[in-house]
Structure formats: C-alpha cells, structure tokens
C-alpha cells in the first residue's frame, strides 16, 4: 500500500508494477495496466533493467484524443465531481498547518 503523503516517482511505479505483474502472472491471470501518467507507463515499458518488452507478451492500446475534446471531457468531469461534493470532501481532510508543497 502506498501512503498518500509519500513521494511516489516513476521509478517507484516501475518497481511496484513489476512486483504486481509477477504476482498476477503466478496466478495464471493476465495483468492489465490502465490509466496512470504516460511517463510512468513509458518508464515501465522502456526500462532496460526490467526488460518488460522482452519478458512479457504485451498488447498496448493508446487512446489519442484531440486536446479540445479531452479538455471538454475533463472540464465536465471536474464539474460533476464538484457538484457531487468534492470541495466538502477535501475540506474534511485538509490539515490547516500541513506542508502541502509535496502534494497530497
């Protein structure tokens, strides 16, 4: 489990993903990696130490969306989240004197 206040880098993602992929494969199931930052996925696929492309049979599906369409969908999703109570939810977890320079 990853703590919400931890610094979790693309390299950390690489190590964690590799561990989970191995565990899933041992159960004779197919690991599916979805979402995440492109930089994390690229690091996983391109890293020479783990040799992801050589160790695993892989299928990649990338969705390329025109920026204006993506922005419209993101804006609608954010509006929906705010209307569903996101601001109140965040207010409940914010600590007034916390250091949020590293993100939450």
From TrEMBL:
Gene Ontology MF terms: ATP binding; tRNA dimethylallyltransferase activity
UniProt key word Transferase: yes
CC terms in the record's Gene Ontology section: mitochondrion
Gene Ontology terms: biological process: cytokinin biosynthetic process; tRNA modification
Keywords for this protein: ATP-binding, Cytokinin biosynthesis, Nucleotide-binding, Transferase
Superkingdom: Eukaryota
InterPro entries: Dimethylallyltransferase (IPR039657), P-loop_NTPase (IPR027417)
Similarity section: Belongs to the IPP transferase family.
Name of the featured protein: Uncharacterized protein
